[in-house]
Amino acid sequence: MSDLGQLIGEVHAELSPRLGEGKVADYIPELAKVPLERFGIAVATVGGEVFTAGDALEPFSIQSISKLFTLTLALGSVGDSLWTRVGREPSGNRFNSIVQLEAEQGRPRNPFINAGAIAVTDLILAGYRPKEAIGEIVRFVRFLAGDDSIVVDADVARSERDTGFRNFALAQFMRSYKGRNPITGHSVVSAARARRINSLMMMCGHYDGSGDFAFRVGLPGKSGVGGGIICMVPGIGTVAVWSPGLNSIGNSHIGAAALEMLAQRAGWSVFE
Q1: At a CB cut-off of 8 Å and minimum separation 6, what does 131 contact?
Q2: Which residues of the chain does CATH 3.40.710.10 include?
Q3: Domain 64-189 belongs to what architecture?
Q4: What is this structure's pTM?
Q5: What is the side-by-side order of every strand in the sheet holding 40-45?
Q6: Nearest to 255 by CA among 64, 21, 88
Q7: What's the pLDDT at 189?
Q8: Which CATH superfamily is domain 2-62+224-266 in?
Q9: Is the distance from CB of 231 to CB of 220 less than 8 angstroms?
Q10: What percentage of the chain reaches a pLDDT higher than 70?
């Protein structure tokens, strides 16, 4: 695996001259402050090795990547009854669109658009006070990452609250359809469930660019408007990239290019 460290270093070096391309998510005031020229890559292998390049150790807001963790946590709690509340199909509309939600009587198309993530988080909130639920989510992410430094960024959270009017509207719209929480029991995320989560990432993990990402990269992943993308490489491990400049769809411009280069050069793909 020593070649892997060399590979990500080469990809980082080749793409670094392009830093500055794309646009930060300036509709969230705190994200508008992030320097455009940041770029990091990290790979964690199934054997426990970690390789990094660039700004991989700099904290950043994962944004919608968190939807992957809340989905996994909710499935572990409520099982497949979750799918009575949320669909499993690509959206084709913007991640914060209300149009499709109205056409489908308040049932979000998938758990990775904003309406779906709100419904999933509502399931986690059942039986908890909000602060307890947030603590549960943070503990879960820390456990998965093996990193106790992961926190909720209060400034970003405040920025989201002060500008997230469309998300408030999505939540109220779903409330009008009186969605109920399924009766739950604790369960563990099995290998079969992990495969299903990966399939959802492949189909729906990158907003309206999910099909193009699958075509170019060929790996299941989830992006966020903070500029991060995480991908699963079967049998190898996990690769994450971060560069805050976004393309027109809302995915990291340089990050997506880095993943395409890595996948091609390393021969990573679920289709081979």
Answers
A1: none
A2: 2-62+224-266, 64-189
A3: 3-Layer(aba) Sandwich (3.40)
A4: 0.86
A5: 50-54, 40-45, 237-242, 228-233, 221-223
A6: 21
A7: 55
A8: DD-peptidase/beta-lactamase superfamily (3.40.710.10)
A9: yes
A10: 84
